[in-house]
Design a protein that fits this description.
Elements lengths: L1 E6 L3 H10 L10 E3 L2 E5 L6 H7 L5 E4 L12 H5 L5 H6 L4 E4 L2 E4 L9 H12 L3 E5 L12 E6 L4 E6 L2 E6 L10 H8 L6 E5 L6 H9 L2 E7 L2 H13 L5 E6 L2 H7 L4 E6 L9 H6 L1 E13 L3 H11 L4 E13 L2 E10 L1
Parallel strand pairs: 6-7, 11-12, 11-14, 12-13, 14-15
Antiparallel strand pairs: 1-3, 1-4, 2-3, 5-6, 7-8, 9-10, 15-17, 16-17
Length: 340
């Protein structure tokens, strides 16, 4: 192996020149020897580069260098050499990180190597706990079965997002870190002193994010008592300007029994929100804003549902967007509408 031996006090200057000309072998470690430094080279430097350095005390030497050990930059990198290449390509590399918990999607055909994959995820993410999705989100509480695979079997964590902190138990409540950008988008539309209804609030990601930046009143409703428990904890965890009123129970019954007129209503329950549209629109003030979410292949279906639910009231569509993919050909759609 070829190296360049130079005095230690001139090593950084020479290293920069060699980097400029792509002369350093980056796979090998720089070696120190007494008051000298030996830099591994791809090839012997030409005379013009030596002249540019302007250093008399340098010497091209032939010596051995250690390999530069670098951590893999992906989950796939950690699995290389442990699983045959064909299987690595098939593994679903997408996963959710919630606080210090990682939730993986591992297809059934990789059952025999799930612990190997989980161990790689533990090393790559440097988080505390690794779980595997064992079912789809289901039931009125919107929870899923999670199989513990590696690390510590502790399902409660604190997730940080745009300055907010959300305490939650991934086994007891629904939370998606993939909606962070969407939540921030809604926060930026809110004005101070609004009355807001967060119809399916969960642990409060929309409500907390809004209340941290805006004064006003937010009715945060969820039928899962565990979600409301964590919502209350999250109100304590965060410095909120606005007032958040946690409500445990059925949102339809609450709206029917309380004559609240809101400036803004958030309906982030894409699988079932359509069943509550009429109740939501009835609770909106003249000119109120509706943030409606639905799983759909196009924008026509959710927009049509809003117009039908509005009846004689005028609807102005302010924005339509694909929030994230839910399955091939289907999207988590977001519609912002003003109801006159």
């Amino acid at each position: 192996m070829i190296g360049l031996k130079i005095p230690k006090n001139q090593a950084e200057y020479v290293r920069r020149i060699l980097l400029k000309y792509s002369m350093i072998d980056l796979k090998l470690k720089i070696k120190r020897q007494d008051n000298y430094v030996l830099i591994p080279l791809i090839k012997e430097p030409p005379e013009e580069i030596i002249a540019e350095m302007g250093i008399s005390q340098l010497e091209v030497v032939h010596t051995s260098f250690e390999d530069h050990q670098r951590s893999p930059r992906s989950l796939k990198g950690y699995l290389e050499g442990q699983i045959v290449p064909e299987k690595i390509e098939e593994i679903n590399k997408s996963f959710d990180i919630i606080g210090d918990i990682v939730i993986l999607e591992i297809p059934e055909e990789f059952e025999s190597i799930k612990y190997l994959i989980a161990d790689a995820a533990l090393k790559f993410t440097k988080r505390r706990s690794i779980y595997r999705k064992g079912s789809k989100v289901k039931g009125i509480k919107r929870t899923r079965y999670l199989e513990f695979l590696a690390g510590e079997d502790i399902s409660q964590t604190i997730h940080k997002e745009y300055g907010s902190r959300f305490m939650l138990d991934v086994r007891k409540v629904y939370f998606s870190p993939r909606l962070a950008t969407e939540r921030d988008k809604i926060v930026k539309q809110v004005k101070d002193d609004e009355i807001i209804i967060d119809m399916f609030a969960g642990v409060g990601p929309f409500s907390i994010s809004i209340a941290r930046q805006h004064e006003g009143k937010i009715y945060a409703i969820d039928i899962n008592p565990d979600a409301i428990y964590y919502l209350k904890r999250n109100i304590e965890l965060n410095k909120v300007k606005g007032e958040i009123i946690p409500i445990s129970g059925d949102v339809k019954k609450f709206l029917e029994n309380n004559d609240i007129k809101a400036d803004r209503i958030i309906m982030n329950l894409p699988g079932m929100a359509c069943k509550f549209l009429k109740n939501a629109i009835k609770s909106l003030k003249e000119g109120g804003i509706l943030h409606y979410y639905e799983f759909s292949s196009d924008f026509n279906q959710p927009v049509t549902r809003i117009r039908e639910a509005a009846g004689s009231r005028k609807v102005t569509i302010l924005d339509k967007r694909r929030v994230k993919s839910s399955s091939p050909g289907r999207w988590h759609m977001g519609i912002d509408a003003k109801i006159h």
